[in-house]
Amino acid sequence: xxTVPPPALQAPASSxxxxxxxxxxxxxxxxxxxxxxxxLGMGFHEAAHAVLAMxxxxxxxxxxxIAWVPEPGMSRVTGCTTTTAAADFDVWGFAALSAAxxxxxxxxxxxYGLWTPERAAACxxxxxxxxxxxxxAARGYTxxxxxxxxxxxTWVMVQGMARRKVTDLWSxxxxxxxxxxERTTLTGxxxxxxxxxxxxxVAA
Length: 204
Prior knowledge:
CATH architecture: Up-down Bundle
CATH topology: Methane Monooxygenase Hydroxylase, Chain G, domain 1
C-alpha cells in the first residue's frame, strides 16, 4: 500500500488555498471519504487541470495537493495548479481545462468504486466554473450556467468538452495523479517527464 504524506498541522500561509479569484471564501465540502481517498481524488482533480493545460499550449509551473488539519480529528484537502498562457490562448480550451478537474474527480470515484451521490456532489468546483466565466467575459466571450447564448456556450456544453478530453487523456491524468499523491507537488517539467507531453515555453 502506498504511504502518502500526512496533512500539515496548520493551514497554508497563502490565502490562495482559502479563497477564489473573486476573494470569496472557499467553503469545504464533506467528502464522505477517508483522508487518503480524498487526497488521491484531489490529485486527479489537479492532474486534469495540468494535463489539459499542457495539451492546450499553456505552460504549467506547478500542480499540488494542499492538505491540513483545521481542527483535531478533521482534515481538509484542496489543490492548486499554476499556469502561464500566451496572450492569444484558446479560450474554449481554457474553459474545458477549468471544468476538467471536477470531471476527473468524478471519474476517479467511478473508477475506484467510490461513487455515491453524496461523494459526487462534494466534487462540485464552482470556483473553477466562475473563473472560466470571468476570464472568457474579459475577452468578449459568453459562458453561462443557463441557456446557450448566441455565439457562446453553456457550462454544461463545456463540461461535455472536458469529459471527452479527460477520457482521451485518462492514462496521463492517472499517472500524474498517482505521482502527485505520493509527492504532493509536481513541477510542469515533472509532469512532462511522467507523460511525454511538452510543457510549452510561453512568452511573458
